[in-house]
């Protein structure tokens, strides 16, 4: 049994106000298909954040459907299991799952499978545990492994058939998550008479609490506090599975001997300008997972320069050095827009020199004019500092086009709701409104 583990595609993400990067996604799909074919993979696991928005556009849904259609066509024995992440609209993925039921080799889990019954005026919710379990088969049709296809879990639901142990060392949420997986493991144990490998999918930030430390793929200690707006959690169930296929962290990491974040296939910001990977997992020695990284190549480069300045001349000089070192050119026929490299210039400017901003912007505008026909120049990023400490100026120097409306709304909601997160219904409603506005702007309509 051999699987390919990927996650955090973020289809539909607008990168600093530019196009939705369909060229890059299709290049990634080509590499993914080549890996599946070369390594004769039996299954593909996608651990959340398939889409970037709760309410993806028609183009984004079409891109996913094109991928699934081509995967099923090219690989007659490949099974695909996809689960939701915090960026996905669970109800949207559940709708996709309805169509995927037409193909018994595709499983999509948007929301937790729950049966609801009205009993004496009260709604009784029961976890449909068997719907969390996906048997995986080898190319010859034999059973090779079991997958726990756990969707993204926001907060505990009251389930009549779920026993949650109140471990004092863990939070209520940690105990709830662990109980869900333990329930699934119990279900698998009743049918797994051949002791086949069990793979747990999940989308959350994993904490090293109550352990000395987790380590990444290079053996370096990894102990984050908060990542991606989600508090890190510790879940003991991972020690009971053959492999934990996690999503949410965009850096590829082997955080336990049997558990990995495969990372995102494409950078979602300039801070992720590292080598991205797929994870290949095989179970040739019983239930022990043999893990291998598969490097991905993106033909679109992310070129960034960080500049600390106290005068305008330094900024101009650093721009010149950057263009020379990076081999910038504005001659010859330019590539199509979606194939051009991205460029970001970041400056750190002490607050006492804030009066230099106009000169800096003028110099940047000249740089932008010179190279914008051959590169995608993102808006100048400005960090103001006081005594060497960056001030909280998230929106300074950004244009309206660069800002993600959903991120602005989410930040506004947190600030006005004591740090709480908007629920899926609210996010879907707001996302639908923003999509309507975008469509009106595109069509030149006036509201």
Describe this structure in words.
- The protein has 447 residues and is α/β, with parallel strands linked by helices.
- The chain has helices spanning 22-39, 58-74, 90-100, 172-189, 312-325, 357-371, 405-416, 424-442; strands spanning 2-6, 43-47, 79-83, 106-109, 114-119, 122-127, 133-137, 143-149, 198-203, 214-215, 221-222, 226-227, 230-231, 243-247, 253-256, 259-261, 277-285, 288-295, 302-308, 342-350, 376-377, 381-386, 389-390.
- The strands form 6 sheets. A 6-stranded mixed β-sheet has the order 4-3-2-1-17-18. A 6-stranded mixed β-sheet has the order 7-8-9-14-16-15, with helices on one face. Strands 19, 20, 21, 22 and 23 form a 5-stranded mixed β-sheet that branches.
- Helix 5 (312-325) packs parallel to helix 6 and helix 7 packs antiparallel against helix 8.
- It starts with a strand and ends in a 5-residue tail after the last helix.
- Mean pLDDT is 85; it is low at 224-229.
Query: Which blocks of ≥5 consecutive residues have pLDDT under 50?
Result: 224-229
- The number of helical runs is 8
Tell me about the largest β-sheet: 6 strands, mixed
Percentage of residues in helical conformation = 25-40%
Counted beta strands: 23
List the helices and strands and how they pair.
Elements: E1 2-6, H1 22-39, E2 43-47, H2 58-74, E3 79-83, H3 90-100, E4 106-109, E5 114-119, E6 122-127, E7 133-137, E8 143-149, H4 172-189, E9 198-203, E10 214-215, E11 221-222, E12 226-227, E13 230-231, E14 243-247, E15 253-256, E16 259-261, E17 277-285, E18 288-295, E19 302-308, H5 312-325, E20 342-350, H6 357-371, E21 376-377, E22 381-386, E23 389-390, H7 405-416, H8 424-442
Parallel strand pairs: 1-2, 2-3, 3-4, 8-9, 9-14, 14-16, 19-20, 20-21, 20-22
Antiparallel strand pairs: 1-17, 5-6, 7-8, 10-11, 12-13, 15-16, 17-18, 22-23
Helix pairs in contact: 5-6, 7-8
């Amino acid at each position: 049994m051999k699987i390919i583990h990927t996650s955090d595609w973020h289809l539909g993400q607008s990168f600093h106000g530019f196009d939705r990067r369909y060229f890059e996604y299709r290049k990634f799909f080509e590499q993914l298909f080549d890996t599946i074919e070369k390594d004769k993979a039996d299954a593909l696991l996608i651990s959340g954040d398939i889409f970037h928005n709760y309410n993806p556009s028609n183009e984004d849904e079409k891109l996913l459907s094109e991928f699934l259609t081509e995967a099923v066509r090219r690989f007659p024995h490949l099974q695909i299991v996809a689960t939701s992440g915090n960026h996905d609209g669970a109800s949207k993925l559940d709708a996709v799952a309805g169509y995927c039921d037409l193909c018994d080799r595709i499983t999509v889990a948007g929301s937790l499978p729950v049966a609801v019954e009205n009993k004496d005026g009260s709604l009784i919710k029961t976890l449909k545990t068997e719907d969390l379990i996906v048997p995986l088969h080898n190319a010859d049709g034999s059973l090779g492994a079991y997958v726990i296809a756990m969707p993204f879990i926001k907060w505990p639901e009251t389930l009549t058939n779920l026993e949650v142990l109140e471990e004092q060392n863990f939070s209520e949420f940690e105990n709830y998550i662990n109980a869900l997986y333990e329930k699934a493991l119990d279900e698998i144990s009743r049918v797994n008479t051949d002791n086949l490998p069990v793979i747990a999918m999940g989308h959350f930030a994993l904490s090293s609490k109550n352990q000395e430390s987790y380590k990444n793929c290079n053996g370096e200690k990894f102990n984050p506090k908060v990542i991606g707006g989600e508090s890190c959690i510790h879940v003991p169930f991972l020690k009971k599975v053959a492999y934990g296929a996690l999503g949410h962290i965009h850096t590829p990491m082997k955080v336990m001997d049997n558990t990995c974040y495969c990372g995102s296939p494409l950078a979602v910001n300039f801070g992720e300008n590292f080598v991205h990977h797929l994870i290949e997992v095989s179970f040739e020695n019983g239930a022990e997972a043999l893990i291998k990284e598969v490097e991905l190549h993106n033909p679109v480069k992310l070129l960034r320069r960080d500049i600390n300045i106290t005068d305008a001349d330094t900024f101009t000089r650093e721009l010149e050095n950057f263009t020379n070192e990076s081999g910038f050119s504005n001659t010859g026929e330019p590539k199509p827009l979606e194939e051009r490299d991205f460029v970001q210039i970041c400056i750190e400017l002490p607050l006492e020199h804030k009066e230099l901003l106009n000169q800096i912007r003028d110099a940047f505008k000249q740089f932008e004019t010179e190279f914008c026909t051959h590169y995608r120049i993102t808006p100048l990023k400005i960090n103001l500092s006081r005594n060497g400490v960056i001030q909280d100026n998230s929106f300074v120097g950004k244009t309206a086009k660069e800002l993600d409306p959903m991120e602005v709304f989410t930040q506004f909601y947190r600030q006005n709701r004591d740090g709480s997160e908007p629920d899926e219904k609210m996010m879907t409603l707001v996302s639908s409104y923003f999509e309507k506005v975008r469509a009106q702007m595109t069509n030149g309509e006036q509201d």
